[in-house]
Structures are given as C-alpha cells and as structure tokens.
Amino acid sequence: MANSIAQATYEINEQSLSNMTLGLKGLPDELSGFSLLRESSLNNKTMASHGFPGNTEENYAKAGRVTGYLREFASPSAIPRQEDGSDIVAATVVHLFEDENRAASWMTDVFVKQFKDNVGSEVGENQSIVAVEELEIDDFYDKAIGIRAVQDGEDGILSTTVIDFRIGRLLGVSFVVTVGDHGRTELTTMLGLELERNIVRELLATG
Question: Mind listing the domains of the chain with CATH numbers?
C-alpha cells in the first residue's frame, strides 16, 4: 500500500492539489469559528514573492519544486490581534515536487534552514524572526519535521508552529499562528494528520 500511494503521487494534476488542502469541515474543533481567509495556487513565482528575502522562482525550480496550493483560515479575533494565546490563522498547503528525494531534501535544506538562517532578520512587513525551535514530530506515515518560530513586529509577538510531512513526491504543510510566545505542536499535528488523511483519500480516488 505504501508504495502504491507514493506511486499515485506521480499521476495527479494541479486540480488534485486543491482537493487535498483542507476545507472548513476538515479543521479540528479547536479552530471552530474560523473562516476562509484565502486560497490560491502557489507556483514558484508566487512562492518566491511571499517567501524569505532572496528566494527566486529559479531557485525553487532548481530545488525540484513544481507547484502547490494553499488554503488559509482566520479567526474572528485576528483583527485586532490583542488577546495573548489566541490562535488567529491556520492553514494547509500541498507542494508538488519532481520526485520523492526532492520533497525530502526541501524539508531540511529549504524549510528548516531558511527559518534558522533568518533568525534576527527582517522578513517583510516590519516582521523579524527572533527565535526558531525545531520540533520532534513522530505521528506521520513518512518523514515529518516541524518548527516553532517566534516573530516580533508592529503588532507585537506572534508564534507560528509549522509541520512538513512527505507522501511520495508531495509535501503537506500545516501551520497555526498564535498571538504571543506559545507553541501549538499538538494542534498543528492534528491539522497535519487530517491533511495527510485527505491527501491519501484523494490519491486513492484518482489512482
């Protein structure tokens, strides 16, 4: 089964990616009340424009990334962002790579490395990363990795907990943004595991 699921990731198209990211009904109960903030295709040009400074469309292509899809939700308390400990944004993303090895290397060589390399740097919109903590993530079907990043900006401290996991040549991402210096490993894992189940359902349906 494992090999057949990985093989199925070579048969999908861009429409499959949008079906894989979670809708409102797929969110954990802890995120009830959230509403759709945005959803969009993520080609390499779009990724570079919203990523860390210095990233380019060409660099992402060289890393083996093909395209992706994002679906992001926000809580009613997102504006204004005042209540310490409140979760204000949650999202799932699916990235498509040329092959399984490229998906795996992205996790350490791009995802974790760029967060760590940008500690102390401004990362756009008057935000700077002040700390990054790598997380132990064990619950997923294949390789998974996580980080918690603390950002400081005009609106104060925000924490982002992010998990990346691989299924064949796909990379699933779940993240939760929280007001203040807090970790959301359990909630982000729940979100990621539901994303993983949804990806597998889509792969089985299209296989």
Answer: 1-206 (3.40.1000.70)
One DSSP character per residue, 100-169 reads: HHHHHHHIIIIIIHHHHHTBTSB-STT-EEEEEEEE----SSS-EEEEEEEEEETTEEEEEEEEEEEETT
The predicted-structure confidence for 87-101, as pLDDT tens digits, reads as follows 999 999 999 999 999
Please give the distance of CA 99 from its chain centroid, rounded to a whole number: 19
d(CA 7, CA 30): 34
50: left (phi over 0), alpha (psi -120 to 50) or beta: alpha
- Alpha carbons 39 and 23: distance in angstroms, whole number: 10
Q: What is the mean pLDDT of the chain?
A: 91
Q: How confident is the model at residue 81 (pLDDT cuts 50, 70, 90)?
A: low
Task: Write out the two tokens for 129.
Answer: 């990363």
Angle, vertex CA 202, rays to CA 93 and CA 184, nearest 5? 35
How far apart, in whole angstroms, are the C-alpha atoms of residue 166 and residue 158? 27
d(CA 170, CA 151): 28
Name the pTM for this structure.
0.94
For residue 207, what are the CA distances in angstroms to 7, 13, 68, 203?
9, 12, 19, 6
Tokens 């999202």 belong to 91
Instruction: Please say whether the dihedral angle defined by the alpha carbons of residues 79, 80, 86 and 89, taken in this order, is positive or negative.
Output: positive
Q: Give the length of the chain.
A: 207
